[in-house]
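Need tokens for this chain, all 260 residues.
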Amino acid sequence: MYRRLSNSLPPDPEFPADLEKLGYFLNSDDEIRSIEDPTQFFEYFINRNERYNEKNREAMNILERLHALGIETLRLPLGTPSNKPHIPILVSRNISTRKRIILVIPEALQDLGIWAYRIIGSAGKDAMNRGSAVNFVKYVKNLGLHHAGNGVNEGDGGNDENTPGIIIANTGQLVWYRGGKRAVSFTTWDSLPRKSAVHGSMRIDDVRNRVPKNSSVKEHVKYIFEEILDNGEMVKKDIEVYVIGLSDGADEVVGDKLVF
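Here are the structure tokens for all 260 residues:
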């Protein structure tokens, strides 16, 4: 009988969270192109193993663009330190002063601020912004600009009260990765580092890898309604709320007939 020693197993793949180190760059049309061959776009399917593909694509950092537009990261449950189990969501700066709020509840398969990776890595001008929440945030900021009739700086998040505030829920990243001190999606969890390329994924502990009051999409959406939208310290008491639900994100609102 033969056995293979663990030190002889193929190593787990590692990809730097940096487009340039992965061999890509952003051209003048904001498209991801290959440095080696600029006619080629971002290649997602680099391997038959889905884990390799997933680890490769997570180098795209959209949150920096959203932060530059005045969108901030808020940790749930409220008041949770950054090193304790929490779920990050995105909210407009000075959201407590807004008269109207647009709550976006995405589908439960995407990372925070992402609509579709396939669009981000595709051909076409402004692909990074179209495949994420960036263009949506810019559009909402323009609503306030047209309503108020005055200028709004790119980085102020549309500070005047006429600009609708934005809350983007995080229905996709509800698993707490203790080793990285961050919330991840099920897809990312399956792509976390392993002892080797052939070892199985880590088991998800229903207590240690979950976040209080945000362990499921249902709990997460409920928490936002009750602890943020119904919280006079967070938003105005007479706030108008408009809900945009995407795919199963809409089911959690309409299906449960939430009343706010």
